[in-house]
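protien #1 (seq + structre)
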Amino acid sequence: MPRPIRAVAAAAGAVAAAALLTGCTKPTPKISVLGGGKVVTITPSTYCFDSQHCRPTTTLDLPTLTVAADDKVLIDVPRDVVSRGWQAQALSLDGKQQLGSSGPINDSHSYRVPSGVANGGAFIVQVDELERGTPDGSKWSFLVKVSLTKT
């Protein structure tokens, strides 16, 4: 085999091997959140590819948005999350009390959470991916701070 052909074959083999390795490390979907004129991209705190394969993250810092008291927070999820179904919940700061919920969503990639669900206080929004209508363990969470003035 001539040298140029060998070099091309070796390069093609390297690209194929890299593609196989990339296929083994599935990317986790990120969601976009808009509030107070700011867009934040959020990585999942836990993401499950199936019941046997979940990836938790080690960071517990929640991304934060500050919104006006009469504003809404727009959550936008990727198509692969929509196709399985998802839900958004507003939770108290300790995560123990549900302040509001979207219910299951499987026909839209976005949902708006009103900033007043905690009566003017800060709250956590948790987005869960669903499998057959129940949370599969995949979660995205962020903190919403409510400002009394327009942001």
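ok now protien #2
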Amino acid sequence: MANLTRRDAILAGVSAAIAAVGHAGFPTSLYAQTDVTVDQFLVLSERLTETRDLDRTVAKTLLGGFLATGHGAELQRLAGESFTSFSPLANAIVAAWYSGLYDTGNSQAVADFTGALVWSALTFTKPFAECGGETGYWSDPPEA
């Protein structure tokens, strides 16, 4: 039997707590209140952001946030449109994907930090604590 360290016990407890919450803290019944599925929300998000291969887990979290704040009917309408005009909700969806932040109904929360689209839009920077190359890579001027 392997020795269980204090660190292992804490990590196991945190992992269990996260698994117990699931759905970013949103109850499953919240997703049943609308006809918009995660796949439909992904298609809508890809159309609005003009980005492919968005993360499904992040999409589920963002969808939960929009449903929790009472946007189910408008999401259903937006998802059914072939061309989406930029309404305040459409703009909020784009902002959520770029910032990685969403509204829970009580406060703002982070759905994804390092995967937020802002990092691919700002090619001159990267998420905090993410290495950009070998030590001192920043001392040479960028290639033209």
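Residues 29-125 form one domain.
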